[in-house]
Structures are given as structure tokens and as C-alpha cells.
Design a protein that fits this description.
This protein has 354 residues and is an alpha/beta fold. It folds into two domains: 222 residues, 2-Layer Sandwich (VC0802-like), CATH 3.30.2130; 59 residues. It is built from eight helices and ten strands. It has a five-stranded mixed beta sheet, with helices on one face. Strands 6-10-9-7-8 form a five-stranded mixed beta sheet, with helices on one face. Helix 5 crosses helix 6.
């Protein structure tokens, strides 16, 4: 038989799956980080997100180490090949070789702290986390990025992130049904709101008020008002001290539905930190670093003053126009009166002449 044709070979090669660094799909119980990005920039977003998350995780929690090797495991014994052993030497040598291979595999295996998971919708990347609480981790990341140059926790070596937009933690998840949402809220909200309350003990400006932010992606079964009402009713039962305020911009209960799964978490200082938009935080950080933040504020004040001057001039001009219109309306009446007076004077002069 001759050689296979080229199109058969190419078709066979194209069937092979290419690894893009994404493993599995979203499932119930996954904890992690939900990140939004620009259209068509998924790979850039994923790479930048891994850079930032790994940088902070390695800095705060240490680098990820591999699992213990066979020699480090309790009760394990390693047989050296060079030792003189009696009996069946071949079996002992084979056992020693197999154990050495297992040790090499164990040392080569390193567990990662973050994994990318297919989100199932466009412009969204989900990164699964291990051995850390997403809400606390994301809060520290955002605070560090937005820190002033004079703060103690300011970090000048943070890697830039051009492809990352908003970053939201995911602490709890369930199926997209009302019964599941209610049960998840009863489990999650007492703990999450309690953590926020503990972090703000002693602050006079702290108010036990929250808002609900809902976002549905590839799901039309639930609306904002339905989910918001359900969360408010649950909070009334499990956390009576907290009050719902639709105008609050500080503490948010974030509920996001992706296809048929619900993701929930609680964040604080949401408006202060640009709604957790990492790109905007990096822009503000660069302005502060270059010393242009004050200049920018001065420009804003100048623009406001110019706008106020323009509005005052516009009002004065409008008032002048109205005054002129009123005078023009009165002018015909005055002219008629003047003509009538002139005619009367002329008549009186004619009578005198006669």
C-alpha cells in the first residue's frame, strides 16, 4: 500500500484536542474568583489573573510545595539498589526501582493553588481556588492595589493587569432554584455578614446596612427583584440587626447566576474601590505614583468652576432676553399712546390758531 494522503493525516491531527489551560466546568460547591474581561481577550485576562493571584498568594501564604515524597511519608522504607541483599535479588531490585520511580513522580508533582474553569458564557473567566477563602483574599488584593504610597501595606512590585476588569469572590454556590437559593443564603449570610461586622468593630461610621447586586448570565428564569426579595427575607430571619438599603454603596451581597448555577459572596467598600475594577485601580495607582492625582483634582475643580460660570452667564443672558421681549411687547402700546398725544397736541394748536 502506498502512503496515506495528506488530507487524511491533517484531518487526524486536527481531531486532537489542544490544551488551553482550562480544566473542567463550573460545578456546585466550587470556590474561587469570577473575573470579567473585554470581548475576545479571554487568554490575556486569564494570564494576567494568574500573575496577580499567584503573586499575592505566594507573598502572603508562601509558595506551593509538592506533596511529601515516599521517604517523607510515615512508615515508608526505601531500599537502596547498592545494598547487598540475600534471597531473590531481582525482586528486591525491581521493588527498589519502582519505589524510586514513585519518589520521582511525587517530587515532580506540584499542586497548583489556582485552576481556570470554563464559565460557560462570554467575557467571564472563573478561577478555582484551594486552601484559602476567596472573599478575604480578594479583599486584601483590592486593598493592596488601591493602597496609597504612604500606607504600610503599599506594594510597588505588583504585576500589571491589562486584561482584568472586575474581580468578584465566590464563597458559596448552588443550583438556580428558589429553594436552593434560600437554603444557601441561610447558610452563607450569617457567616459572611458576621465577618464584616467583626472587621468593623469599634468604627463609629460603620452601619449595618447592605445592598444586593444581582447579575444573570445566560439565564432568563430569575429577575433582580425576585432574587433581591428572597435575600432580604432571609437576612431578616438570620441577621435581624442588618437592614436593607437600596442606596447603600458600601456593603454588597453579590448574587450572580451563570446558566443554572448561583454564585454568592459579600464585599465591602465596593464603591470606594471602583466596584472592584482592577484596571481602574491600576490607572489611579499610576496617577498617584506619577504625582498627577492632585493635578487631576485641580483640573476637575477648574472644570467645575468654568461650568458654574457658564451656567451663571447663560442664566443672565436668558433673563436679559426675557426682559427685552417684555419691553418689545410694551413698545407698541407706548408708541400708540405717544401718537395719540401728538395728535391731540396738533388739534389743540389748530384750535388756538383759529
Amino acid at each position: 500500500m502506498g502512503k496515506r494522503k495528506k488530507h487524511y493525516i491533517s484531518a487526524h491531527v486536527n481531531k486532537r484536542k489542544k490544551s488551553d489551560g482550562v480544566y473542567g466546568k463550573l460545578e456546585i460547591g466550587m470556590q474561587g474568583v469570577l473575573i470579567t474581561h473585554d470581548r475576545g481577550k479571554e487568554n490575556l485576562c486569564r494570564n494576567d489573573a494568574f500573575k496577580i493571584l499567584n503573586y499575592f498568594a505566594d507573598k502572603w501564604y508562601g509558595t506551593v510545595k509538592g506533596e511529601k515524597t515516599l521517604s517523607e511519608k510515615p512508615g515508608a522504607t526505601v531500599v537502596s539498589i547498592d545494598e547487598d541483599v540475600g534471597g531473590s535479588d531481582e525482586e528486591d531490585i525491581d521493588a527498589a526501582l519502582s519505589k524510586e520511580v514513585d519518589c520521582i513522580k511525587d517530587t515532580a508533582h506540584v499542586r497548583k493553588r489556582f485552576y481556570a474553569v470554563k464559565s460557560g458564557c462570554n467575557n467571564v473567566v472563573f478561577i478555582k481556588t484551594f486552601d484559602l477563602k476567596p472573599s478575604n483574599f480578594v479583599r486584601r488584593v483590592i486593598q493592596t492595589i488601591a493602597a496609597e504610597t504612604t500606607d504600610d501595606h503599599y506594594d510597588a512590585d505588583i504585576p500589571a493587569a491589562r486584561g482584568v476588569l472586575r474581580i468578584h469572590p465566590v464563597d458559596y454556590s448552588c443550583r438556580a432554584t428558589m429553594s436552593e437559593i434560600n437554603s444557601m443564603a441561610k447558610r452563607a449570610l450569617p457567616q459572611l455578614l458576621g465577618d464584616v461586622e467583626q472587621r468593623n468593630i469599634g468604627k463609629e461610621s460603620f452601619l449595618k446596612e447592605y445592598n444586593v447586586m444581582f447579575r444573570g448570565r445566560n439565564n432568563n428564569e430569575f429577575g433582580m427583584h425576585i432574587v433581591t426579595d428572597a435575600i432580604v427575607e432571609v437576612v431578616k430571619d438570620v441577621a435581624e440587626n442588618w437592614r436593607y438599603n437600596c442606596r447603600s454603596t458600601d456593603i454588597y451581597v453579590i448574587v450572580e447566576i451563570i446558566i443554572n448555577l448561583v454564585r454568592a459572596s459579600v464585599v465591602e467598600n465596593y464603591a470606594r474601590y471602583k466596584k472592584f475594577n482592577v484596571r481602574e485601580l491600576f490607572v489611579e495607582r499610576a496617577m498617584k505614583k506619577c504625582g498627577n492625582a492632585k493635578d487631576g483634582d485641580g483640573r476637575k475643580e477648574q472644570q467645575q468652576e468654568k461650568q458654574e460660570q457658564y451656567e451663571t452667564v447663560k442664566e443672565e443672558k436668558k433673563q436679559n432676553e426675557q426682559h427685552q421681549e417684555q419691553e418689545q411687547e410694551k413698545q407698541p402700546e407706548n408708541q400708540h399712546e405717544q401718537q395719540y398725544e401728538k395728535e391731540e397736541e396738533q388739534k389743540a394748536q389748530k384750535l388756538e390758531e383759529k
